[in-house]
Amino acid sequence: SHPPRVLSCIQPTGDLHLGNYLGALRNWVNGQHGCDAFHGVVDLHALTVTEQPGVVGDATLRTAAMLFAVGLDPEVATVFAQSHVPEHSQLAWVMQCQISFGELSRMTQFKDKSAKREGSFVSAGLFTYPTLQAADILLYDTNEVPVGDDQRQHIEITRDAAIRFNHRFGDTLVIPEAVTPAAGARVMSLQDPTSKMSKSDESGAGCIYLVDESAAIMKKFKRAVTDSETGPDSVRFDRENKPGVSNLLEINAAVTGRTPQQVAEGLDMYGKLKVETGEAVVAAIEPIRERYNELMGDPGELARLLRVGAEKARHVASATVERVHDAIGM
Ligand code: ADP
Ligand code: NA
């Protein structure tokens, strides 16, 4: 039997950070040999909130370069830009016709996102984007979609749409399963350790970007927020009462392959914890940044890698669209 086909996509935000790496990307790299991995940089989704030229294309290239830099192997995984595979748009229309207005109206993410954009342009695409996401998944006969709780509703609507299509037109689409992603570290902001490290951190001081220079990384770690406890037992893992220290311990553990408790054992000063964690992160990120810079400096090679991915993706996608059109009878 074939290994399961697994699809994980990423929005082309450009600036991937340590949280993305330790929470998601590293698992994709480790998982690529055990499954038939498809990874799309979903630039069509970014269009739902894009109003300026150049931005999406640039972010797509940077995001794709980072996926290769962290270790996704273009010979092993299928890494592609969504807009390079026109079948996404083709199947999206078909899926729009399998999902009702009422179902889309119940999507909590649309309610959140449109509320945030109140007073500015709320595109119809923002409303229908679960139908494009359904197409993304169904196009590849995907077996498994690793998603967090915030995306479960979108996988449900995808399954319902596929079941409805199969009922109407005959057995055509593979029904995907939502699966819990391999456990990754949950990385908190270095400045506010009670909230997730995120690209929406405005100052950037709490966020380690994968493109950050080593000196900048060390500086951010040295300024990491901890607490005012002192004494030989002050370096210990306690998420609840010591979120800053625990975050540093967990980051250190994640990049050195230890447990937070093991990291804590050898340390009794916050200064040392910060420096050692910064150094461990620098050691982990430096080779990634070097590969990234190499690829960004060689646009021809990056374009070639994305062409290889798009060809592999289209091979599957075009067969699915043909099957769908045949089933409908068009
Ligand atoms: P951001 O929060 O910066 O907007 P995204 O929402 O685009 O990041 O997340 C992309 C992937 O990275 C998701 O799989 C998400 O779970 C993971 N991720 C994002 N931030 C973190 C974090 N701080 N710790 C662990 N994983 C994270
Ligand atoms: Na997200």
Automatic annotation (TrEMBL):
- Residue span of motif 'KMSKS' region: 196-200
Record: residues binding L-tryptophan: 136
Q: Where in the cell is it found?
A: Cytoplasm
Q: Which domain of life is it from?
A: Bacteria
> What is this enzyme's EC?
6.1.1.2
- Which biological process annotations from GO are given for this protein? tryptophanyl-tRNA aminoacylation
Matching PROSITE patterns: AA_TRNA_LIGASE_I
Please tell me one Gene Ontology term that the record gives under cellular component.
Answer: cytosol
Q: Report if keyword Transferase is assigned.
A: no
One Pfam annotation, family name? tRNA-synt_1b
Per UniProt, the keywords (alphabetical) are: Aminoacyl-tRNA synthetase, ATP-binding, Cytoplasm, Ligase, Nucleotide-binding, Protein biosynthesis
Main localization of the protein described in the UniProt heading: cytoplasm
Give the catalytic activity.
tRNA(Trp) + L-tryptophan + ATP = L-tryptophyl-tRNA(Trp) + AMP + diphosphate + H(+)
Q: What is known about what this protein does?
A: Catalyzes the attachment of tryptophan to tRNA(Trp).
Which protein family is it in?
Belongs to the class-I aminoacyl-tRNA synthetase family.
**Subunit architecture:** Homodimer.
> What HAMAP family does the annotation carry?
Trp_tRNA_synth_B
Q: What is this protein called?
A: Tryptophan--tRNA ligase
Q: Quick one: which gene encodes this?
A: trpS
